[in-house]
Amino acid sequence: MVIKPKIRGFICTNAHPVGCAAHVREQIDYIKQQPQIKEAPQRVLVIGCSTGYGLASRITAAFGAQARTIGVCFEKEPSEKKTATAGWYNTAAFHKEAHDAGLYAYTINGDAFSDEIKEETIARIKEDLGQVDLVIYSLASPKRKDPDTGEVYSSTLKPVGKAYRTKTYDTDKDVVKEIELEPATEEEIADTVKVMGGEDWERWINALAEADVLAKNAKTTAYTYIGKELTWPIYGHATIGKAKEDLDRAAKMIRRDHKDLNVEAYVSSLKALVTQASSAIPVMPLYISLIYRVMKEEGTHEGCIEQTYRLFTEGLYAEQPKWDAAGRLRMDAKETNEETQAKVKELWDQVTQDNFHELADYAGYHADFLKLFGFGIDSVDYDADVDPVVTWEQS
Ligand code: NAD
């Protein structure tokens, strides 16, 4: 099959196996060039391991610390006629690289919110690793089925309190336009918290501890985006921000409930980047294209892999990590500092349809977007016939 990108709205509906493998290798190569991580975890569980920040975390643990990793993700497998999702191909590529490097890797593909997948993961940890020392929680999902009631909740990306009129960039049509976003109802806020808040993170940690597969002094982190004034109305102070606030509550509860194991639970705030999850959020593509330009000019631009490497070395496994007032690990300071934000604000105020390509790093945004699905990579021959059916060997 010759595979070319099929873009629909903010998503690409297919993926290129060779391109995804090259993208994974690029991240592994970056980690291999960094100093090995000291005091690093050796047995790691990554929930949401196949794309974006979760994949980068898994690569960091495996190739930066020689950790044995178990990953959980929710990806579509390929058929002769249809490609898999990018996360499937990324996982296959990760497994191959891990295998070649003699590193243990096992991936469970299924709904991480369900009790069944938690049980399957626990059984695998018992069998292969005994316990885990680090649990990364990096899920981004529009839906969650509550395992107790069977009810399915959907998240909403809306402002809270009042309507919000703003600029946005339609990546599909290449158009900068004004949109008006209606405020969320109380129910929509509660549902978003149910999907993207801390409840499932707590459930995972409780289940792992109860099954005695969580090591003493284990660490766990869930990821958040805090941002600043430009993104607060649609992120930080919006429905998704309410869900993220709930992670702070969950981190406290995990620390309190698992004092006997001395579990360290943190929320880690990461920078805004192009991922499948962030492409779906109104305003974010415009903001990201502008912040890319500013941070590239400042020489401070980072991708997922640079962020997660710093999270391990300057946060989770640093001798003296810096927490913010709420006890979160902050990897986003290069983005959220006043000076950088002032430059983005200046561009934001000027940007229109006519000057968008001039003011924003559209090329950088678009290249990163295509790369998420394995497209636009120089070393890959996109006219070649490739087999879409790719799988992986568990360790
Ligand atoms: P992503 O879409 O790239 O990754 C989501 C992961 O979750 C994938 O591995 C996917 O397979 C998995 N997943 C989704 N639903 C699942 C389910 N039901 N069961 C099992 N696995 C499931 O997203 P991302 O941008 O890397 O986001 C990861 C976390 O990082 C989120 O909490 C997000 O809020 C946070 N974050 C993202 C940004 C950003 O700009 N992208 C910035 C800061 C923080």
TrEMBL record:
It catalyses: a 2,3-saturated acyl-[ACP] + NAD(+) = a (2E)-enoyl-[ACP] + NADH + H(+); a 2,3-saturated acyl-CoA + NAD(+) = a (2E)-enoyl-CoA + NADH + H(+). It comes from the Bacteria. Residues 82-317 form the Trans-2-enoyl-CoA reductase catalytic domain. It is an enzyme of class 1 (oxidoreductase). InterPro entries: Eno_Rdtase_FAD-bd_dom, Enoyl-CoA_Rdtase_cat_dom, FabV-like_NADH_b, Trans-2-enoyl-CoA_reductase. Substrate binds at Y225. Its EC number is 1.3.1.9. Keywords: Fatty acid biosynthesis, Fatty acid metabolism, Lipid biosynthesis, Lipid metabolism, NAD, Oxidoreductase. NAD(+) binds at residues 48-53, 74-75, 111-112, 139-140, 244, 273-275. GO terms for molecular function: enoyl-[acyl-carrier-protein] reductase (NADH) activity; NAD binding; trans-2-enoyl-CoA reductase (NADH) activity. The record marks E75 as: Plays an important role in discriminating NADH against NADPH. Pathway: Lipid metabolism; fatty acid biosynthesis. The active site is at Y235 (proton donor). Residues 324-386 form the Enoyl reductase FAD binding domain. Residues 2-80 form the Trans-2-enoyl-CoA reductase-like NAD(P)H binding domain. Coiled coil: none annotated. The keyword Disulfide bond does not apply. PANTHER family: ENOYL-[ACYL-CARRIER-PROTEIN] REDUCTASE [NADH]. Involved in the final reduction of the elongation cycle of fatty acid synthesis (FAS II). Catalyzes the reduction of a carbon-carbon double bond in an enoyl moiety that is covalently linked to an acyl carrier protein (ACP). Monomer. Belongs to the TER reductase family. This is Enoyl-[acyl-carrier-protein] reductase [NADH]. The gene is fabV.
